[in-house]
Amino acid sequence: MRPRMRHVVAALVAGLMTMSLAACGGDSDADTDSFTVGLLLPSKAIPRWEHSDKPLIEKRLKELCDRCTMEYANAESDARRQQQQVISMITKGVSVLILDAADTKALRSSIREAQRAGVPVVAYDRLAEGPISGYVSFNGAQVGRLQAEALLKAMGEEASRGSVVMMNGDATSPNAAWFRSGAMSVLAGKVEIGRSYATQGWSTDNAYANMSAAIAALGPDRISGVLAVNDAVAAGVIAALKTAGVRDLPPVTGQDADLDAVQRIITGEQYMTVYKPFKAEADAAAAMAVALGRGEKLDDIATTTTDSPTTKGVPSILLTPRAVTRDNIEQTLIKDGVYTIDQICTPKLRQACSQAGLTG
């Protein structure tokens, strides 16, 4: 990553999106636009894709380009299916693609097909290989650092005595390596890594199987903490610990601020999650897509550049994630309108919510 001379913090992104709207025509020619943006998301295993990203991107596209339409497809964790979806969208005549690749290497040839067809591609959330035109994500190293810092804090003195199980993401995703690198920059030399696993498909079931193997190998008493890469993985980890009869659960991290994970944080089953403000990410991707659909450059939108294994200097926006624990749910997720107190605090959780100060 090569930041420009000006260092732009995430707080400016909203302003950049507004600038983008004005730069893209505002009242003059936005109403005459009529093109289709293709959105391809990788799976349904992680709730955020269908529940947050898709509707947020669609809404922002309409705000930026009233007559634009969106074509949507979900790969359901199948890279070959996503390859077919890309070709189908090109055949249907989309003008630009927003792609969260199910497999960043496998989609390289499809992105080349899009380039040959004159269809620019915005890589969304993870950096796809091939000739992409723009990239929007969060700082993955910072995600890993936030998880590791929170885990060390939660473990306290146990950090020097027990061991940590690393439950990483899917090995085919560059984000998984990015998260792990950030986490290890904090954990290295401070804790023993008892076991480390890649979680195929970011699947809760696969996380359950891997955690069960770790418990069998290490024994539950030697596991002082679990660095789970996201909330779906954390769910599998916690289920495996419970199945093994562990009553005093070790601290478990997460990512994505899924509703069920936030509820687990309230009850003390999960220690933390990493909140990535999806609206800012969706807004940035939509702004890039509309600009590219209008044949414009991304100079007024991108805040940095990123190198992929195949493409140098990709115009990029890398947003800032935030750690969420029981102590700051109200100041983060509720304040930003991600959830209401009523959504989090079901009747079954009212007492735990009251203890956490969520009584609004």
Oligomeric state of this protein: single chain
Percent of sequence in beta strands: 15-25%
What is the CA–CA distance across the termini? 43 Å
The overall pLDDT average reads 90
Quantity of strands, as a count: 13
Uncertain segments are: 1-32
Can you write the helix and strand succession as a string?
Answer: EHHEHEHEHEEHEHEHEHHEHEEEHHH
The largest β sheet comes out as: 8 strands, mixed
* Class based on secondary structure composition and strand pairing: alpha/beta
Q: Count the DSSP helices.
A: 14
Gyration radius, in Å: 21 Å
Q: Enumerate the strands of the largest sheet in spatial order, edge to edge or round the barrel.
A: 1-11-12-6-5-4-2-3
Gross morphology is globular
Helix content: 40-55%
General description of the model:
α1 runs parallel beside α11. Mean pLDDT is 90; it is low at 1-32. α5 (108-116) links the parallel β4 and β5. The protein is α/β, with parallel strands linked by helices and 360 residues long. Helices cover 43% and strands 17% of the residues.
